[in-house]
């Protein structure tokens, strides 16, 4: 018998009578504290640790907080070997080693055998697909050597024909397939971004297209499980729950089931377990003996409110005032960042925009930084020819939205923490910044992608560690 249990978000347990693998686990309800994210697993769960299965190996697909969760790792027996993406940073390997784990690299294309399970890691297509900063992410397949079943997930990476070709060579027919939905509505911090009222419909279209590619190139899955987005915000940022979650997974699954009535689609819920035998799905149990979800009455509300009233935001660092000495360091860090921007996506987009398209605005972008009670305490404009950021003066400093094509407002202390490597950029993504873009049809102001690129643990392992 081959069993796949959904832990929540993108965590999984795959087990047979002889082996058990744990993937990207969130074993604590709160996660992301390293980057001040204030996440909680959604829907809330309840573990019975006395019945938790004996784990033979822990697999970490990449180093993002929702897959490489430090409090969860602290719960795991150090005698359990950890398989970490071979493309992960030296910081990740050093951290796990110092924690007391034996760490082995998970190398794309190299099959690992644990008991009667075989694990095949794949790679992302970073040339032809939009993968963000998922440089170290490894999609993967697990199969039972006796042929009872298999599990396949792209994790956070777009599916391609190349992936299916490799998957088909490993398993002739798909078993349980995890389908990732990471769609979010960003209109709460960017007025030029349309509210994603059509998120559910777009998710249906994407799943329909992916399902078509999967079935035509590989075959009909035993079951397709929609996952990811399994978090809710807590504390002072709980208001985000009514703004960012734009997809109704239950509606997506119902629509897909209506389109393909002879196939099995599920909206993943923690504790759900799918059992396969001889390549066929035998049953699905809604909860396992060791994991179940709490009653819906305890769940935070994630239905979009449609309200345009966005509350003010506090700094991720907890510090509202930047000191003069920190401002000097900020200038240095910004000029270093200016060098990092050269030849990046934002740089190329800016150099593809001509002045007349800026409608009289300066054809560049600015950081508008808050400190204390002043929302425009510091304004730094990007100067590509001099490869620097220069402090704005006069009208540009007082009315930057009317002076520059685009810009981002955030707390000065937060930006410094990101540029110093003390926080990841994701700390200011959800509800801790505001953006504008007066030429969004021409200028791709993807500032967060650039901050991710220069802050990735591959780039700054010592700071990340």
If you had to describe this structure to a student in words, what would you say it looks like?
The chain is an alpha/beta fold. It contains eleven helices and 25 strands. The strands form five sheets. An eight-stranded mixed beta sheet has the order 9-8-7-3-2-1-18-19, covered by helices on one side. Strands 10-11-12-13-14-15-17 form a seven-stranded mixed beta sheet, with helices on one face. The protein has a five-stranded mixed beta sheet with strand order 23-22-21-24-25. A hairpin with a 2-residue loop joins strand 18 and strand 19. Helix 4 crosses helix 5 and helix 6 packs across helix 9 (412-420). The longest helix has 19 residues, at 199-217. The radius of gyration is 23 Å and the shape is globular.
